[in-house]
Write a sequence for this structure.
């Protein structure tokens, strides 16, 4: 029960920090800069962001990134020493990003087909 509460607390705090620090600004000034996450989805996974909607994609990315980081934090918090925590974060972050963005691209492809 304690881990679930901690997970929810991590998720909400990461979601809000990510939203207010990055997404909210990006929604206002869309034409100036594009997130590297969005650029990756457009180029590597061939997703047409305009069909889905830029705001919708940013909100989905915010949710996925907060979920991914919360899961990593719950896994890492079980270790006692700081060096083990840092090592586990370094080891886990790349596979987590690769896997979650792969499934996110599949979902966005589905949304792209649905919007046609």
């Amino acid at each position: 029960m304690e881990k679930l509460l901690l997970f929810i607390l991590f998720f909400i705090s990461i979601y809000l920090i990510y939203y207010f620090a990055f997404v909210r600004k990006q929604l206002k000034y869309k034409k100036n800069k594009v997130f590297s996450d969005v650029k990756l989805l457009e180029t590597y996974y061939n997703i047409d962001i305009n069909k889905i909607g830029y705001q919708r994609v940013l909100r989905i990315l915010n949710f996925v990134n907060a979920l991914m980081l919360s899961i990593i934090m719950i896994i890492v918090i079980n270790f006692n020493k700081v060096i083990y925590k840092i090592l586990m974060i370094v080891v886990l972050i790349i596979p987590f990003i690769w896997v979650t963005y792969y499934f996110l691209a599949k979902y966005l492809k589905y949304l792209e087909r649905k919007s046609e």
